[in-house]
User: Fold this.
Amino acid sequence: MDKRKQRVLSILAVGSCILGWRLYVLFFEYLPDYRQRVPGTANAAPATPSPALQNNATHEPVTSVPKEDDPLVALLAAQQEIAERPWNDSPFIQPVIVTNDQPATATTAQPEEAPASPTLRFVGVSRTGQQWLAAVDGRIVRVGDALATGFEVKEIGKDWIVIEAAGWRHTYHLGSETPTVKRATE
Assistant:
């Protein structure tokens, strides 16, 4: 037999031993009631269980009694507790903690008027790597550039550009002459 076949055979032999050991551990340590459930074995469970081994709620036979220190029992209890929570509890949303005991009061300040939207010739966008560029009024601008009208370019997307001034955002879309105006905090 050549050296390569000997190596493959020895790896298979070691792997088979490890697999057999893991199966033994699985059946005899993690599934202690395995012999009771397999018919024909020496320790097979009786066909009709005694009344003491029956679950009173469902009248089904109890196959094993869980140990108190078993980590699987603790895991199943934690899963059950999580399953009983209401559906609106999202693990990704942080809870809101209110530290002020006084109720919030509504402000009666007059809403500020949005500044007039500038007339822009927004004709196209381009992307180089991760940076978006826009063609506005005959020049190429990028995020952070200031326009001659006093507005700053905040965002550039596939077919839109957002400019901001005095706390107001103006969103221009390709092919549209009028922008969408919103407060910068919205």
Summary: The first helix runs from residue 3 to 30. Residues 7 and 178 are 75 Å apart (CA to CA).
